[in-house]
Each structure stands twice: as structure tokens, then as C-alpha cells.
Structure to design on (348 residues):
């Protein structure tokens, strides 16, 4: 007659797994990295002259050391920056002082008006990072709103919900994030 | 009357704890999947500013972090914002080496996809951030992400 194998006591198994669980809880963090993505321009070649851009195609945003805004030559505020950017990028009434538009053929979208506008963002060394992010955030918000609008119109979905890479690319081509950051300079003294 | 009398002591059956470990293991795996290990001990205070237009980082393994903020032990290191790379304080010029090391550690296919996450405290002045950005441009690490928290950005104090 075969001997009966005694049952393995698994009561302590729960304790062991609890221990592991607490270990992982303590050493890990849930928060995922979120942020605003940007692409830096390649270093400037001093022998190449920068391309001329018409004045009407530039939207200058200056942030000084006291976190004050100068939008297109006049004192601005963070709360109106988004509407101003939207107006600049869309140019709804084809104002001669606002940027030109060119008709370009883009896959999946067909012929579409693409704004030639460039946002020029300049900041001082003394500008606080918080303010800088606020400005970046408002500019991105304007672009995102336009992208969502176009995406809804063409594909019936918000831009961020688009699954197809080709569709995303098409929208990105139609409404590029054209933020040019000037070479750093000191305005407003050293802080 | 004897009919109602209990017949001896009634024993409460022991609760079966055999499946307890399975449940806990399930928890364990759940946490292991949704979390990530803390990659570095922070020496600087970093509280990123809030923003609304944020996107998730696509691939975490392809991102390297640069921390900038006031040192935690301000009595020892002062209150001037410092840069932290990996596990130590660094200068702006150290970024070149840092990026090159990060590049060397990745596959050749992944190298162009590498991005740098700037985790900067909200109170830091842009000067140091601009220096870092210039250095990154020189090295050719063009993809950057400004780490932010989700929240209202418009509220002006």
C-alpha cells in the first residue's frame, strides 16, 4: 500500500506573497511621465543665412524676467494668448496683417489650406520655468484645438483618438506646430 | 426540554486560506505590471508645473531624465538650482557624456527614437533650462519632453 504523502502546508504562502506585494508597493511608483513634447532645432550653421520670413507670418511672444508677456508688440496676458494664437493661425477673415495661407495637397485630406504662420517664442534667462510652461501650454492648446477641429471634420474623431498613423500624420502636416524658439539672449538683466 | 439542548460543542469550521495566496499573487502581478521601478534617488526638489495639454510619453524605456531643481539638502549644497543626471549632481557640460552613454546603451534601431525628459521644478529660472536645451541641440538629442503635472495651467496665482 502506497504511503500517503502529507499535504504541504500552504498557510505561510500568503505571508510570503504579502511580503513581496509590500516590497513592490514601496519600491515602485505608479505615476507615468506626462509632458509637453517638443522638437529642438539642429544647431545653427553660421554660414547659412536664416530664411526671410514676412512680418505678417510671424507671431512674436516675448516673456521677460518678470514673467510679463509681450504678444506681437503689445502687452499681453496668458488668458488671452490662446485666442490670439488661434486667430493668428486660422486667419478667418484673410486679413492682410495675418499670415498667408497656401493650398497644399495632403494625402487623405486632399487640397487644404495650410497657414504659413510661425510662432516665435523668446524668453529671458530670468523667466520662471512655470511661466514658460504656461506659455507653451497655451500655444499647444491652440494647435490642439485646431487639430481636433480638422480631425472631427474629416474623420469624425478627435485628433487624440485617431488610431491610424497615416491620418495622424496628415493632420500634423495640415496643422504643424511651428514654434520657433529664438537663440537665447539676455533681456531684462541677470537675475 | 432535552430536545432543545445542544448536543455537545459545535465546532466552527476553519476558513480555508489556501486560495489567499493566489489572491495576493494576483495583486502582486497587478502592481508589478502597472508600476515602474523608481529609477533614481532624487537629490533635487522637483515639482513640475501644471499644464493641460499634455501627452503620455510613448516609450518609457527610450526616455532619459534630466532633473533640475533646488537641492534637497540646501544647508549643504545651497539653494541654487542644480542638475541631476542619474544618481549625482552634474554640470551642463556633463550632459553630452550622459546622452552619449544613453545612446550607447540602446539598440541601433532605437537610437533615433531616444528622447530626453526635462523634469524641472516650477520655480527654476529659464537660464539653466536654456543652457541644457542648447547643450542637447549640440549633441543632437532633439526630442525633448517638458515633464508636467496634469492640472489647471491658466490660474494666475
Amino acid at each position: 500500500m502506497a504511503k500517503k504523502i502529507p499535504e504541504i502546508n500552504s498557510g505561510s504562502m500568503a505571508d510570503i506573497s504579502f511580503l513581496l506585494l509590500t516590497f513592490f508597493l514601496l519600491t515602485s511608483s505608479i505615476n507615468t511621465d506626462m509632458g509637453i513634447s517638443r522638437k529642438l532645432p539642429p544647431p545653427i550653421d553660421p554660414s547659412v543665412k536664416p530664411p526671410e520670413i514676412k512680418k505678417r507670418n510671424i507671431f512674436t511672444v516675448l516673456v521677460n524676467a518678470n514673467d510679463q508677456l509681450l504678444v506681437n508688440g503689445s502687452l499681453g496676458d496668458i488668458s488671452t494668448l490662446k485666442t490670439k494664437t488661434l486667430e493668428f493661425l486660422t486667419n478667418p477673415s484673410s486679413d492682410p496683417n495675418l499670415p498667408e495661407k497656401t493650398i497644399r495637397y495632403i494625402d487623405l485630406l486632399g487640397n487644404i489650406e495650410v497657414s504659413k504662420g510661425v510662432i516665435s517664442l523668446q524668453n529671458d534667462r530670468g523667466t520662471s520655468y512655470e511661466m514658460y510652461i504656461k506659455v507653451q501650454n497655451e500655444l499647444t492648446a491652440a494647435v490642439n484645438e485646431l487639430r481636433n477641429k480638422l480631425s472631427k471634420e474629416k474623420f469624425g474623431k478627435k485628433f487624440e483618438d485617431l488610431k491610424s498613423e497615416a491620418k495622424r500624420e496628415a493632420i500634423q502636416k495640415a496643422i504643424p506646430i511651428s514654434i520657433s524658439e529664438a537663440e537665447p539672449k539676455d533681456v531684462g538683466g541677470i537675475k | 426540554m432535552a430536545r432543545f439542548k445542544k448536543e455537545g460543542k459545535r465546532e466552527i469550521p476553519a476558513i480555508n486560506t489556501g486560495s489567499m495566496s493566489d489572491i495576493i499573487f494576483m495583486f502582486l502581478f497587478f502592481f508589478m505590471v502597472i508600476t515602474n521601478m523608481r529609477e533614481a534617488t532624487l537629490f533635487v526638489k522637483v515639482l513640475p508645473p501644471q499644464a493641460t495639454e499634455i501627452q503620455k510619453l510613448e516609450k518609457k524605456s527610450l526616455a532619459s531624465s534630466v532633473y533640475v531643481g533646488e537641492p534637497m539638502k540646501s544647508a549643504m549644497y545651497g539653494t541654487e538650482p542644480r542638475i541631476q543626471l542619474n544618481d549625482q549632481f552634474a554640470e551642463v557640460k556633463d550632459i553630452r557624456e550622459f546622452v552619449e552613454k544613453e545612446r550607447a546603451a540602446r539598440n541601433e534601431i532605437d537610437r533615433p527614437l531616444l528622447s530626453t525628459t526635462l523634469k524641472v521644478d516650477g520655480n527654476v529660472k529659464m537660464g539653466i533650462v536654456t543652457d541644457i536645451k542648447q547643450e542637447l541641440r549640440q549633441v543632437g538629442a532633439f526630442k525633448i519632453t517638458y515633464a508636467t503635472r496634469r492640472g489647471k495651467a491658466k490660474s494666475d496665482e
About this structure: Chain B touches chain A through 57 residues (CB under 8 Å). The mean pLDDT of chain B is 81.
